[in-house]
Design a protein that fits this description.
Four copies of one chain form a homotetramer. Chain A is mainly beta. Helices cover about 15% and strands about 45% of the residues of chain A. In chain A, strands 1, 2, 3, 4, 5, 6, 7, 8, 9, 10, 11, 12, 13 and 14 form a 14-stranded mixed β-sheet that branches. Chains A and B meet through α2, β6, β10, β11 and α4 of A and α2, β6, β10, β11 and α4 of B.
Chain lengths: ~270, ~270, ~270, ~270
């Protein structure tokens, strides 16, 4: 929407229907911190057909993206929260990370990402990180309320072989999403409700550097007045017990894909 | 989305399912300029089932909203383009304004407005107007590219009786929208495509002031590099011939509704 | 500076040396909260020649300014902290408010205000207030750190006579400032250090409304990392004991002056 | 100012008087384009005692700075315009670049830079560059008016030896500034007016990469309404004839100095 001007322009559609190669673009620095929490606290976040697999380890990843082809070279930032799941549908089976929410600081990719792909994207402010005396400090906020601090330190770069190993270990089938769009007038009922998958293959993405270190992440308790559209989401993360940190990671990559391989799992 | 944390909070859903009264909230200053254009230029913008009625008069309205209850007292601004149409569906018939696009400078209401209501909302920057020596100058832009100037002058306030008359003249059945959401993976096909109506009744809205005057509106030609997600929309308005201006209006209102009376027309 | 292009343009200098009348401009909404504190805590903030007079009552005032003539109709916001003093110089004597700091959310008037007038202006973010269910909530921050909350409620409008009385009671000789500019290379030494006065007369300013009510103000303790250029200022206010609140006030005015009557007190 | 809370914190003063080492900080990417113009157009910009030397080549340099120690790891951007001059004072002689204006997108260093050092710093918005298909596109604006585009392409990296040669060629004695601060009340008269020098020595600065290429720079003609505090500065650059471009350069450096070696030239 508005579709009467032609299809929404964005990552999968440029001027005059042009596709984007994503070969030397975009450049991404992804910083993440993982922690072990309680199974019981993650289970309520699972849509029907999803189950936890392996340990209940939550990963909070913040990415700073530049030189994006479909934005004519501009950039934006994202903040995602995910944990490992399996989805058992009527026809399909998928193992991967369930991306329970993905904040982005630009509306345009939020719209196409939600509607075309089923990503649970919402908006927040994600300023550039502060890097000072070996500490990287990332934050996220909304209209003056800072709801997250993520700090990373003691970073050491991995040699190339380990890097490749690191990456191939990841992913399973890919990233799992629950696409849900409401029906107008019939409040509380969906028009659309299905599971989607971002397949893990990403042939144009080149990993330039991987760094490992220590980190912490803190979500800050919010009132409805602070965050009237998302205090419940932030507080769900605030409430998660952090039983043990599982380290921090910084990844620098170039290249990617337009996600037109996104598909429905049934 | 994310629906696994509960329904999206927004205008129709507060903390713990609370509804908003919208009695002394929000406060809106709406500034608009209308012009006569060519029927032939508007027809391509009509979805199936829509027809132009009366003269092809386009209205560009920019609103500055404060003291919004569902945002805990914050505000945001909007910029809409509409013209009079009739919709003849299989079952339903509706006469009103077709809102071809509504820019807003806050993502949160864009998401619920698109998905719950079918408004063609997208994002842009809408700074506060400049008011200087009797001229009000409104602008809209995106990441550094100003795509619209709207100027209003020679304003004179209407007496109360005329005000009431003005308002009741408006509207027909209400505002018409075309809700379209794409199907994941089946690119180019819709998951949802239907017409929705915002009924014109707005019992809590009190018109405090109506001013009439003269005005102009200019959309600025954009390249894909300038506006990679919406140059085609802005250029469609840039291309519209302005055959004759039909005056400017400033409306100050208090109160409104949560739009939960939005419904599908079939 | 840069003076090689001609004198700095701003409130006292428009295009081609033009002066501004400030008759129907600007429009100001000033919200303030006052509280009684300890004399001992204010005394260290006094430059040489200054003494406290009357009770040690601190006023925190936040103003939202629109339709500013010298900004071609744009607006900006300010946050000031002041208390009553007397200045006894070698030649001059002045009674009034000492404006210990004035934050503004626009750099341009900060520069001319500091250098031409001697106002202790520095920068911060001052978003529009939230107004919700009878409570007005104002905030100020810097690069993601919110350092102040000011809340006002129970407002009742004063009748016109009281309004006039209110205003004439104010002010004494005016607002007192300490202008200090450092000498390059001779670190720690001033190039300029003198007291300036903003005379209280403001003949073009028309008070449209005065409201009185209750209010609170909270400064938030900051680290150097949070506010590397002003944590010491914010913490000085955080440390002030609030012995008793002395009420809140909202003032709406139109018109003003260009402050070219600012003068040095010796 | 406000000096009653202690000296201004900034690049030369941290918490409790701490100095900053600037060894691995900041990280700077400087992009510049130079062009030949007319001597006659630069001469009016010269303060007393200054003369042009060599060719009238103007350099427009835009820098993107991150990991700044005195900002606890934050960053900001700058846009400067300079050309080669000689200053012949009563006592001192200096050869270098005259920095006629330096825009910055953060107020805090503007204040200390103007007042402590005599840099002609003013404010503008400097978004991150767009980098797309080999073209780097930098822009600068103010409250919605984009006043400059700078584009660089065909970049090739220089080998290390050339890099060192490049850098040592630069600079002469350093960067020259004209510090001018007005006297309150005695409008049009200075309180301070002298020349300052930023010596070229910068022992902690390590040049990591130098790239050379082609580029253009365009200033856009502004009205007083567009840029009420600086249309005259922007238009002075707009008016400069571009007789010949002299290439573009991208420099990546780490480390720097706190500029406490800044001194007055008499």
């Amino acid at each position: 929407m508005p579709t009467h001007f032609g299809p929404s322009l964005g990552p999968r559609q440029g001027e005059a229907g042009r596709k984007f190669a994503n070969v030397d673009s975009p450049k991404v620095t992804a910083r993440s911190v993982s922690f072990l929490t309680n199974r019981e606290q993650l289970i309520p976040l699972l849509p029907k057909g999803f189950e936890l697999v392996a340990e209940p380890v939550v990963t909070v990843e913040i990415t700073y993206i530049t030189e994006i082809e479909w934005l004519a070279g501009r950039g934006y930032n994202t903040l995602g929260v995910s944990f490992p799941v399996v989805f058992n549908g009527k026809k399909d089976h998928g193992v991967g990370s369930f991306l329970v929410v993905l904040w982005e600081n630009l509306t345009d990719p939020i719209l196409t990402g939600r509607e075309e792909l089923g990503f649970s994207k919402i908006y927040c402010e994600i300023p550039e990180p502060r890097i000072y005396q070996g500490l990287t400090h990332c934050t996220a906020g909304w209209m003056g309320f800072k709801f997250m601090d993520l700090k990373i330190w003691n970073l050491r770069q991995l040699p190339t072989e380990e890097t490749t190993a690191q990456i191939s270990k990841q992913g399973g089938d890919g990233i799992l999403h629950y696409k849900y769009l409401p029906k107008t007038g019939d409040w509380g009922k969906p028009d659309i409700a299905y599971v989607t998958l971002t397949p893990s293959a990403n042939p144009n993405q080149v990993v330039k550097e991987v760094w490992q270190g220590e980190g912490i992440v803190q979500f800050h308790k919010a009132t409805w007045e602070d965050l009237p559209t998302m205090f419940h989401i932030v507080n769900a993360f605030y409430d998660l017990e952090i039983k043990e940190y599982r380290g921090a990671k910084v990844l620098r990559t170039i290249g990617g894909k337009d996600l037109s391989d996104q598909r429905i799992l049934q």
